[in-house]
Amino acid sequence: MRGVLMKIFPWSLLSVGLVLVVRDQLIVPFILLTFISSIPFWTKPSFSRKDISLYSLVSLFIVYALWLMFSDNLDYGRRDVESKLSFLIFPLIFILSYNNWKSEFTRMVKDGIILGVAVSMVISFGRACWCKWNGGEICFRNDQFGFNMHATYLSLMYVFAALLVYERNMPFKNNRLVKIFFTLFILLAIYYMRSLSTLIAIGVLLSVAALWWIISRRRWVLLAILPVLMIIGYFAIQRVPAVMSDLTKTTDTVQEYFRDPEKFVQTHKRWNESNTVRIIVWKFSSELISSVPTGVGTGDVKDELFRVYRSHGYDLFAEKELNSHDQFLQTGVALGYTGIVLLFIIFVFAWKKIRTKEDLVLNAFLILTFITCLFESYLERQVGIIFFSFLLNTLITDWKFRNREA
Question: Domain limits at 259?
């Protein structure tokens, strides 16, 4: 039995990545299979500074569980804790299996994500084209194109898969050509999904990558070119009306808010435009954290947010059950500053000095998820929770393994 489980484990890792992207609703038995098949690899864990992010993830889960005691809505709180079990399960798997880790395991995780995204793209483009062929008019609209989940979650997976393909030595004769075509289809899919938070995350990632490349190679003269490239990029975006329209709306909304915040809050009570929604819920969430710095409790997050919305006349927001649209604020409302600090620690201590393409992938993952967490309550849905925990644990374990081998 032990030998069978050891053979199953790497394939279970691949299956988690694949199923998570293609049909996350079916993911639970695959996580359970991964947990059980990892048991033969368990050894006594070692403690080091490198593991701080993983133990902080476990600590975050424990705080969510403990903060149930401050909640009146225990039913919602228990469901929320249950949905965040991945913050506990995946760190346990990886921490206990680390001493028997193999590079093959990391490769299977990455291949699962790549394969899942490839299948997802085929289905998404296939459905959209079939819809168009039959006279549909909204087939490529952002709320229709991604076939199985919200555009923010799916587009982030697509971007990360492009990074994994870049890093991977593909088993094809025309390796570079395959990577180029895969990336082009990724970019086209992201264009159709048009998640603003993902587009911002990509922009930040490219800017950081360019700056890192210049500094690491001491090409200081190129720093003067960066503003020129930004201007060129701006004019290039103007050639894409859909993206430019979203950016213009965002800029106008932010400017209107800063001209007169109180007037903005008073005059947008029936608005449902995404930028307006974010600014309002960010303001209300920040006020709630300031008034209850220890958090309202795991189970009372939604109830307290809805109470604040209604107290300001935003009944529509309560009816639509809007969250904070920012993971740090969402966590802060539930757990107070304790939760916010733990979440920051996870990102800060996971950051590694870039020496290889694998290090670049880890840091790119952190940038993408961090920026997304600033604009979405990314860790409030099962797919976001599992994707973040699964990949964070994999990439940190892989980093430790490669440095141990070196």
Answer: 48-100+239-406
